[in-house]
Write a structure and sequence with these properties.
This protein is an alpha/beta fold and 365 residues long. It is built from 9 helices and 19 strands. It folds into 2 domains: 201 residues, Ribonuclease Z/Hydroxyacylglutathione hydrolase-like (Metallo-beta-lactamase, Chain A); 127 residues, Rossmann fold, CATH 3.40.50. Strand 16, helix 6 and strand 17 form a beta-alpha-beta unit.
Length: 365
């Protein structure tokens, strides 16, 4: 732990009188700051500063600065430090996958979520009840992070970002082949791929390498720190170059990764007749691609699709499902048709992880 703020350690609480009849909502409940665990004295992914925060992963809509103490995987803590500076919290404590820690009257254990590097599901156990807060997750293969792990539980808290049957992401490797086919078809043009700087960009690069693309891949300045951090954690990404300072003519036939906001900015003028692509699960909706001026939509998502969400719910064995941010109503309805108790949590403050991207001008200055 750094600093002098309260440590994320157990307190000697006297058990409340209702402990023998503990209900899930007595363990975790939604409050304005986020998901609160009163028996443990902490919040999970709080959206406003709290005394003790347990963080699932480093995207800016889940990992915010200003908390007194933060417990997370080492990778998530490092991501927060890269984005917010050394003093993003009063104190920090790292926890590994499979490691348990006692907080107040509950025990928590971290499990891989498969979303991005360091992402975790948090199993919260009290008496004979286990609740798993999954954060954001995906069950699809990803060479840049530890695979998703199904955790048996009584209550499963799931996201619903792509919680509609229309969202079936398919094979990301097939989408990357579309990108490479376009590069081969238009060797005189540059290809700009919009991708979130944490997780998506690195996954796209790894998929390109797996497809046999061994040419240098260029990066927008906002991608550099996090991508180099991935490399420092042993993720092999091949030769990477910064696009800044490269002559326009030399970028013909190349691939550049950039924040989505940059692909519609004046920054793109440095590229010869660029083909604009966007790697996102939202590219399944063609109208959304057209509205965003995306010439080459790539359906590559770091969230579970409809089949991933429903199969995961089945696999956990949970009889009660709480649904957070996204298409909550559809997934709640599906759960009820399967005889499961289900309800939306109506948490606010979670959404597009691109909110944390650095402004183009600042990143390229």
């Amino acid at each position: 732990m750094r600093g002098s703020s309260p440590r994320m350690t157990a307190k000697n609480h006297q058990s409340p009188p209702y402990i023998s009849k503990m209900r899930p909502q007595d363990i975790l409940m939604p409050v304005p700051a986020g998901l609160c665990c009163k028996p443990g004295g902490f919040h999970i992914d709080p959206v406003r500063p709290v005394e003790r925060a347990v963080i699932t992963h480093g995207h800016s809509d889940h990992a915010r600065p200003g908390h007194g103490a933060v417990l997370a995987t080492q990778e998530t803590l490092d991501m927060m430090r890269l984005r917010y500076g050394d003093n993003f919290a009063g104190s920090t404590q790292a926890i590994g996958y499979g490691e348990e820690i006692k907080l107040g009257d509950v025990t928590i254990k971290f499990h891989p979520a498969g979303h991005v590097l360091g992402s975790a599901q948090i199993a919260v156990s009290c008496k004979d009840i286990c609740i798993v807060a999954s954060g954001d997750y995906k069950d699809a293969p990803d060479p840049t992070c530890v695979p998703f792990e199904v955790v048996t539980c009584d209550v499963f808290i799931t996201e619903a970002t792509f919680g509609l049957p229309v969202f079936r992401h398919g094979d990301a490797a097939v989408e990357v082949k579309k990108l490479l086919a376009s590069v081969a078809l238009f060797p005189e043009r540059a290809h700009l791929v919009g991708a979130y700087s944490l997780g998506k960009a690195q996954r796209v690069i790894a998929l390109l390498r797996a497809a046999g693309y061994d040419a240098p891949i260029y990066l927008h300045g906002a991608m550099e720190k996090i991508t180099r951090y991935y490399e420092s954690r042993g993720v092999k990404l091949g030769e990477l170059r910064m696009v800044k300072g490269v002559k326009k003519a030399d970028l013909a036939g190349t691939i550049t990764l950039a924040p989505p906001s940059a692909t519609s900015d004046v920054w793109t003028r440095r590229f010869p007749d660029p083909v604009t692509a966007f790697a996102s699960g939202w590219m399944r909706v063609r109208a959304r691609a057209r509205q965003g001026g995306v010439e080459l939509p790539l359906v590559i998502s770091d969230h579970a699709d409809w089949d991933g969400l429903t199969s995961t719910i089945d696999a956990t064995g949970a009889r009660e499902i709480w649904v957070t941010h996204g298409q909550e109503d559809a997934l709640v309805h599906w759960c009820k048709t399967k005889g499961l108790a289900a309800r939306p949590l109506d948490l606010v403050g979670y959404g597009d992880e691109d909110e944390g991207e650095a402004p183009v001008a600042e990143a390229e200055a």
